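Let us work through a complete example step by step.
Step 1: write down the sequence.
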Amino acid sequence: MAHKFIRVDKKFPLRRIPTGEELLNDPAFNKGTAFTCEERDALGLRGLLPPQVCDIKQQVSRVMENYRRKPDELEKFVFLASLRDRNETLFYRVVMDNIVELMPIIYTPVVGQACQQYGLIFRRPRGMFLTIKDKGHMADILRNWRTTETRVIVVTDGERILGLGDLGANGMGIPIGKLALYTACAGVDPQLCLPITIDVGTNNEMLLDDPHYIGIRERRLRGPEYDEIIEEFVQAVQEVFPTCLIQFEDFANLNAFRLLNKYRDRVCTFNDDIQGTAGVTLAGIYSAMRITGGKLKDQKILFLGGGAAGVGISDLIVSAMKVEGLSEEDAKRRCWLVDSKGLVVKSREGLQDHKLAYAHDHEFLPDLLSAIKGLKPTILCGVSGQPGTFTEDIVKAMGEINERPLIFALSNPTSKAECMAKQAYQWTDGRAIYASGSPFDPLEYKGKRYVPGQGNNAYVFPGVGLGIVACGAKHVTNKMFFAAAKALAHQVSEDDLATGCIYPPLTKIRDVSGDIAKAVAEEAYDSGLATVPRPDDLLEYIMDQMYQPEYPHYV
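Step 2: predict the structure and record it as C-alpha cells.
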C-alpha cells in the first residue's frame, strides 16, 4: 500500500509514513493496539489489529507484567529488545517509567552478558556493521542508513567490551545500549541515533571457533591498515552526516588515546571510557567533599588500573585542581597509578605513552597494598576490570588512613567490581563512601541505611550528547566534561548525602541530563564552538528539544 503524508505533530507537521501491514512493522511509527478507530480506517489497519483500543498506559502495564514473568535477566533483555524492534515509542515509555528497574537490564551489567551471547540472541539487525571488507566503500554503505539526519553515532571495534575483553562484532550490544540511554536518560530523539560496529576481526579464540559468531572470522587488524579503516570511517561520517557527534566506545588502550588525540580537534568526537568516566568520577568526588569537608586540591587519588579510564580521570582531575590553584605539576602529583606490575614510577622501563604523565619520582612499590601504605591516598579508585582486587586488607588500610575513605569500585559489569558495597561498609565499620560502576541495592549496616552510589557514565554522556546536539558544537573539549561534572554534583541533595550516596537518584536522570546539557552548551557558546544561535533561555530551549515517548495523532 502506498505511503501517505500524515500530520503528526508541531515539530514535524508532515511526515511520510507507511500504511497497512507495513506500518505495523515499522517500529518508529507503530502504535500497536493504541491506534484509534479513526486511524485504523485512515491507515488501512482495519482487521489487522484486535478490536480493543488500548492507551499507552495499558500497554506499559501489559509489557511490565510480561517482563516480570521472564525467568532470568538475559530473557528480560531479549524481551525488551524485541519490544524496541516492534514499537520504539512504547519501549522508551516503558524504560522511562521504570528506569531504576530496567536500566541494569538494557545496559550494565546485563548488556555484558548479552554481548557474550550476541550470536545466539540475535533477532533483527539494529545499527550498521562496517568491516575490513568494506574499505573504499564506507561512505556508500553509510548512505544505506534510513536517514541523513543522524546526529549521534556510538562506534566500537569490540576489542575491550566493558571488563570482558575482546568480543569482536558481538560488542554491538554496547553502542545499541548506549544510544538507548541517550534517548531514555537525555531525550535525544532515537531517529537521530546510529550504533556502529567496525569489525576488524577478533583475537578471541572462543569466538573464532563459535559456529554462531556473527563477525568476520579473522584475527584483528593492526598497524597502518587499521588506521586506514578508522580514517576512512571518520571521513565517511563527515561526508554523509556532517553535523554528527562520534562517540568512541570500548576501544582498547593501545588505540583509545591515540584515536582521541588524533581526531578530537578535527571532528566532533569524544571517548566515553576516557572522558565520560572521568566526568562521573569527578562529580562523585565533588559530592563526597560535601561529606568530608575537604577540597579537591588536597586529595590524593590512587588508581588501580592504568588504562583509558584511570588516565582519563586523572587528566580531568588535574584540570579541576588547576582551577583551585594548583600548578599542573603539583596536580599531577596528586594522581597515582597502579597497574598489573605495581606502582607506576619514573624508574620503570617500557611504560606505555599514556602512563608517562603520571609516572612520578618515587620508590617502586610492587602492589596495591604497599602503594596505599606508602602513599596514604584519600581516594581509592578501581578501573582495572579485575574483580575482588579491593580485598579486606586493602579496604581496611584505607580506613586506617582516612576517617571517611572514598572507595570507587568502577569496573563493569557487576562481576568485575573490585569489591562489593557490603564489603566496603563492613570492612570500614560503615565509614566508607562507596560508589560502583554497576548498581547495588541499598542495605542496612548496624541499624543505618546506606545507598551505594552508581558512578556510571550514564549520568554524564547522554547529557553531554544532548548539549552538543542542541548547540551544534563543532568539537568536544575537556572543559565540557568539567562543566558536566559540576552540574551533576550540584544535583546531589543533602538527603542523598545522608545515606552516603554521592549521585542523584536515577529517577531524576532526565532533569540531571538537562542541567548537564545546559552546562555543556554554555561552555560551547563561551568557547565559540557552538553553531546554533544562542537562545534567550538555554535550559528551556534544551528541554524543549528532548524527545518524549508519546504517540502522535495520525488523523
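Step 3: interpret the result. The radius of gyration is 24 Å.
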